[in-house]
Every structure is written in structure tokens, then in C-alpha cells.
Amino acid sequence: xxxALRTVMSNRRSVGFAVTAIVGAALLLGAAYxxxxxxxxxxxxxxxxxxxxxxxxxxxxxxxxVTVAEWNLCFEQGGCSMALRARPDQDAALIPATGLNYMxxxxxxRWLSDVTRHEWRLPTSQEWAFMARPVLPKEPxxxxxxxxxxxxSSYLVEGLSSRALMPQGSFAATPEGISDLSGSxxxxxxxxxxxxxxxxxxxxxxxxxxxxxxxxxxxRDPARGGCAAGSxxxxxxxxxxxxxxx
Length: 246
Prior knowledge:
Elements lengths: L1 H34 L15 E2 L5 E4 L6 H9 L25 H15 L8 H8 L17 H9 L27 E7 L11 E5 L3 E5 L5 H4 L10 E2 L3 E2 L4
Parallel strand pairs: 3-6
Antiparallel strand pairs: 1-2, 2-7, 3-4, 4-5
């Protein structure tokens, strides 16, 4: 009887040790995963130098706008809901991804943040204006810059639709090495022109190009978009930033 009891107790200790070992190994693996840095396989090319903002923060910026090829990788992996096409005479790896509304951009931001294990975002309008200062005109055109004039803001952006998309690197670079801020693509920022903190209620966001203007976020489904329904201008794209170095 005592021998049988000793065998049972021994077996229980063995099982307990095994469970403890498994749990310990799982915790170690989890800690190792959490301590890993970003997955650079999907990380975009960054400008060689960070932008030193007036408030003392360093802003790390994509060297070029997100390209058609980069966007389609998001689509192929299920992170973005539509595919983009480049013209036969264009290289999808070099042509900016355009025709994107604000919600499209947020799909890409979430996907990239997830696959790289690194937090990405759109720049604020002030960050965009500051990093673009070296390559933009010293005196921006004041016409139609009042966000209250929604038709004027739309006209301001749509008026550039005839400009041909150029491959990355076709326009000037800032001293930090950020290219094409003065190019043919207007870039979304994360600032709501009305100051609305709830993104679901923001009627328009600022975009950066020849200057900063306000554009409706443009829902493609009229049933959901109301006054903001419509297709984004063909030259509206994005460039992401991060607050931490890769």
C-alpha cells in the first residue's frame, strides 16, 4: 500500500515538474518575443536623418511616399481592402500609391504597425509643414486655405490632378534626406481641420503638398459617406512617420 502511495506521489511530482517546465518555457519564449525589435523585412526605407522638431522631439520619416508595390503587399496579406495598379509604363516599386482616402490610409498604417511590430502613424499637419519647409516656397499661396471654404479646399487639391505622377526621387530632398515633399503627390496628415478628436466624426483632414489644405476624408460608399462620399483625387497618397528609431 505504502509503495503504491509513493508511486502515485512520485508521478504527481513528475507531472508538476513537467507543467512547471512547460509554463516556464512559454514565459521565456513570450518574453523573448516581446523583447524582439521591429521586423525590418517589411519596414520602409527611412530618411537618413531624423527631423529635429521645435519641441525637441526627433521625428523619423519615410524617405519616399508609400509606393504601389508596398500598398499591394498590404492587400495581398489581407491588411488593405483594395489593390492598386500602376500603368504599364510605370514601375510599381517606384510609383507612389495614390487615389487613397483617409480610411484606406488607416488600413495601411494598422497593417504596417502589426507586421513590423513597430508603431507607425501619419504626421500631423504641423510636423509635415515643418519637415517640408526647406523645399516649399517661402510664401505659400494664401488663396482658398481657409478650411471653412470646403469647395475651395477641394478645388485647390483637385486643380493639380493633371500633374503626372513621377517615380520616387524625382523631386527635391530636404537636408534630412526626405524626398518628393514638393512633388506631384499630396500627402494625408492626421489632423482634423475642425479639431475634432473623434476620427469617426471628422469631416475633413489636412493634406500636405504645395502647402497645407483641408480635404474631406472621402468615403467611397455614398450610404456611409454622406456629404463626404466620393473618390479621392488621383494624386492623394501618404508618407508615414514614427516617433522611435528602427
